[in-house]
Amino acid sequence: MRDSNDISVLDQKQGNNEKHTLAGIRSIWQQLIHSKTGLLGAVIVCIVSLIAIAAPLLTSHDPAAVNPLNRLKPPVWLEGGTAEYWLGTDNLGRDMWSRIVYGARVSLIVGMGAVIVSGILGAILGLISGFYGKWLDAVIMRVGDAFLAIPTILFMLVVMAIVGPGLTTLIFVIGVTNWVPFTRVVRSEVLSLKERDFVFAAKSIGAKNNRLILKHILPNILSSFIVICGMNVGTTIIMEASLSFLGLGIKPPDVSWGGMLSDGRQYVATSWWVATFPGLAITFTVLGVIFLGDWLRDVLDPRTETTHK
User: Fold this and answer.
1) Which of 73, 135, 145, 155 could be stapled to 89 by a disulfide with Cβ–Cβ 3.0 to 4.6 Å?
2) What digits encode the pLDDT tens for the residues 31-52?
3) Is residue 44 within 8 Å of 288, Cβ to Cβ?
């Protein structure tokens, strides 16, 4: 049995670990507070996320409910507007506020879901390419070059036209077509790390390749991986909006900001709010993600020593 000295040592180590964790969280929080763009990005992302989560509580209208009698009603502050439809209605009489709120759900789900797919695929291929090298590295990199040679939006248009629109399909298609940046970043990190002394030391005591990758290399590339994930969410949201705008993304009755833009483009001159509000939603959401991702790069990237102001 452990004596009291062993127990006290274990308690002390646990206490030190908790202190280090709290100190790290406090340091990151202080850096976020002192970063204007980082704080703005975090606020925007949090607001959009809360709106998406609490959508049923924030709306009183079905976003897909059509009411021709109320079509193209202006926002509440314009003549003819009502408090019932405070952001107005679209060409089919659907409540703009409800559609904006539920559209946030789709954008965040597609944005994060596609990044998860492309991130996992890219990380696996990058680890294999960088660690094993030789012909595996050559094959993976040439396939990546082939993907980069094809315009991404064109490739997605072809696939979506063949498979058909849908939320799951959209996440999978965007994820599969955007793995190359993740693979390149992970591969470059692995090529550097596998030449480090701690990897050679682990090899010298008989550590197998799986253990080297999972225990020694993977934890050291997580910061760079998180950064590139954050930076790609905004791009993915724009891709989803683009495909939905072209009619190959989210299918009605599901709501998409890109689909709302497509519905409102012919009413810009007479009913500007139909296209303006979803356009502003896309703009602010993507800017928030970019600002937050830029701050994450400055905080987590060990090669960056300056704090983003």
Assistant:
1) 73
2) 777 788 888 988 999 999 999 9
3) yes
User: 60-64, 89-93, 192-196: lowest mean pLDDT where?
Assistant: 192-196
Distance (Å, whole) CA 95 – CA 159: 32
Q: Are 35 and 308 in contact (CB under 8 A)?
A: yes
pTM across the whole model: 0.81
Q: What angle do CA 170, 176, 177 make, to 5 degrees?
A: 90
pLDDT recorded at residue 118? 93
- The C-alpha R_g of the chain, in whole angstroms, comes to 24
Q: Tell me the average pLDDT of the chain.
A: 82
| Mean pLDDT, rounded, for 151-158 | 81
Let me know how long the chain is: 309
| CATH architecture of residue range(s) 34-300 | Orthogonal Bundle (1.10)
Angle at which helix 273-300 crosses helix 257-264, to 10 degrees, equals: 150
Q: Where are the domains of the chain?
A: 34-300
> How far is residue 267 from each of residues 68, 80, 264, 272, measured CA to CA in Å?
16, 17, 5, 6
Distance of alpha carbon 149 from alpha carbon 284, whole angstroms: 31
Q: Are 111 and 166 in contact (CB under 8 A)?
A: no
Three-state DSSP state, 95: strand
3-state secondary structure of 50: helix
pLDDT tens digits, 51-76? 999 989 998 888 988 988 888 899 98
Half-sphere exposure of 135 (CA within 13 A, CB side): 0
